[in-house]
Write a structure and sequence with these properties.
Number of domains: 2
Order of helices and strands: HEEEEHHHHHH
Distance between the termini: 66 Å
Radius of gyration: 31 Å
Largest sheet: 2 strands, antiparallel
Strand content: under 5%
């Protein structure tokens, strides 16, 4: 060992090592939640683009058409049935995107109105009506299968499955936050989480679409800002500083 002039070992001036970082469970849960929020927004955008690649019959569209060839304002997500003729009168309407529930209801109504249970031919009449109902059901099922095949082909089904996983992740992170030890970060995260869950997407802290829940949340978060950290502090600060920005544009709000 080297020695100095006094015979003692020299002092080594080493840089101070950083102390151990303190794990912030609330911050970790919030960051995990935000990753799922970002994934959800990305996948929703992808599904919107891919949905435009589907043929019109496979998209959400008008539920009915009248005898004049005019479509209804009411829409339906069920696929459009192929080769549906127009009703016989201009004022009459025909469903072109029926659901299986409507088909079954049509069968029951038809049998109830036109059937005569006391007649000898009632059972045959009912079975004939049931056969027509089943044929309509098969048409709907065939359309659903073909739409699903197209969705898988263009990647839309995979994106929709990803949306489901992202939502599950957000729910799990929200649940985990509830059971953490109390801290300012936890309380602030829960406030923002509840704002995201309870308020309308167009709601703001101030302005024409003011939301009382958001207004109260902003007051609470502003007082808590000095005690917050990391992404929770960043999101709370953005929320408080932008009273006219709608909830939909808040970074922590789910799509």
């Amino acid at each position: 060992m080297l020695q100095n002039a006094f015979g003692a070992a020299p002092f080594l001036h080493l840089p101070a090592l950083p102390g151990p970082s303190v794990f912030n469970a609330a911050e970790d849960a919030w960051e995990t939640r935000q990753r799922h929020i970002d994934d959800l927004a990305r996948l929703v955008s992808i599904t919107k683009g891919l949905s435009e690649c589907l043929p019109n019959w496979a998209k959400e569209g008008p539920r009915s058409i009248n005898g004049a060839g005019e479509f209804s304002q009411e829409t339906s997500a069920w696929p459009e049935i192929e080769n549906v003729g127009l009703p016989p009168f201009p004022s009459a309407w025909r469903v072109i995107r029926p659901s299986p529930f409507e088909v079954k209801a049509d069968f029951e109504q038809y049998v109830r109105i036109f059937g005569q249970p006391s007649s000898a031919g009632y059972q045959a009449f009912r079975e004939n009506a049931r056969a027509k109902m089943r044929a309509r059901m098969r048409t709907i099922v065939a359309r659903l299968r073909e739409r699903r095949r197209l969705q898988e082909e263009i990647g839309l089904a995979a994106a929709e499955r990803g949306i489901g996983l992202a939502i599950d992740g957000i729910v799990a992170a929200d649940s985990a936050l509830q059971y953490l030890q109390d801290s300012p970060d936890k309380r602030a995260a829960i406030i923002m989480m509840r704002v995201s869950d309870d308020c309308e997407r167009i709601a703001t802290i101030e302005g024409d679409f003011q939301c009382a829940t958001m207004f109260i949340a902003a007051i609470a978060l502003e007082q808590m800002l000095p005690d917050l950290s990391g992404l929770i502090q960043e999101h709370a600060s953005f929320f408080v500083s932008n009273p006219t920005v709608p909830l939909a544009e808040m970074p922590f709000a789910a799509a």
